[in-house]
Fold this sequence. Notes:
Bound molecules: zinc ion
Largest sheet: 8 strands, parallel
Strand order of the largest sheet: 6-7-8-9-10-11-12-13
Order of helices and strands: EEEHEEEHHEEHEHEHHHEHEHHEHHHEHE
Helix content: 25-40%
Number of strands: 15
Oligomer: single chain
Amino acid sequence: MITAHSAVATGPDLTAGSDRRYSSEMIIRARIVVTMHGAPIENGAVAVSGNRIVDIGTFDDVKARNAGNTVDLGEQALLPGLINAHCHLDYTCLRGKIAPQKSFTDWIRAINAKKSGLSPKDYVASINEGFEEAKKFGTTTIANLTAFPELIAQIQPAIRTCWFAELIDIRAPERANEVVDAAIKSVGRARPKLVLTEVEGGAPWGLAPHALFTASKDVFHRCEEIAKQQQILLTTHLAEAREEMEMFRDASGSLYEFMKGIGRSMDDCGNETPLGLFVGAPGGRALPHWIVAHLNELSETDFELLERSNSKFHVVHCPRSHNYFGHSPFAFDRLRSLGFNICLGTDSLASNESLSLFAEMRVFQKNFPQVSPEEIFRMVTVNPARALRQENALGQIQPGFGADLIAVPCSTSTDIFEQILAFDAPVSWTMVNGNM
Length: 436
Ligand SMILES: [Zn+2]
């Protein structure tokens, strides 16, 4: 069982002298250590004490400086554990249950029909199954949106989790504050079980107004107020589908008709694009707090807006869910050149077939062959750590960082990052928070 732990943001000072010895509990040796901070280290090793990394270097150097037992992983590459920046484990049990639909709106109808048959017990089982699967595929930290924050207290995640309470108030927008405050209570109660690293100035949990079409302006506003007070994280789905663009910009299309049909006020439709509405919210938007999923459908005016905007949010792209829905091509090059921090996520198994970030990296590589494998690997390590404000604690192998490590087989013949992306099996060796 993983327990909550104290900050790992400050590690020992390795610059103090090379003959310094540490009382570490374990030395992990591998053919290559991919630190994501400087070049990979051949015949490398990592010393771990408790739940944190205390030393890295060549095996000989680490062995000379540390006293622990050695775990030799042999012909394997030791990597930082992977970080999934966008997921809904609630729907792990819906794998293969919803065939690709003619439209995004039809998919919403289909998932709503499936959800109506699920009980709280089903959801708890589904979330637990999701945690196990994510861990099996080398994920050690997950940004997980749940529509049932009241169930969090019943769940013991096997990996570090940033819980986001997903908020929808479409049927009762007058109760926006109530909806947000009730969710916060549930996430708050669950906090002792959170295993995300507490970092200075930030709480390791968040709120997720579902989308502009399902969460009211008041929900977005209340969440931002709380984010500013308590430094929590925020995430939402934005500009995901063509029909969302049609709904907001043109006041037409199947999503518009569907939302109108269930009683949503459509006053905000007919002028702005989804991004225009989000970024241009009255009173401004606390952009650096936001982790924005998707951003698939952007107009030229949207790009102008992004170019003019000084503060940047984080972006999560979900390659296989994107393919499932057949969205417009993801504007990776343009968003990257504008300075956005781009991460990968799996989204839920209601639009994907597994929780493997290796599979996401491979599909991304197929869609964007010009992007280097190393940069793609950053999108499941360094970049999402930054989005979750864990850049000094997770996503790299560095002294002082959390001991979240995985190993995959490697050989000398090809580029190590190519080999990482090609890995297509359960991960046989995983350490989360110092526990194997
Ligand atoms: Zn999602």
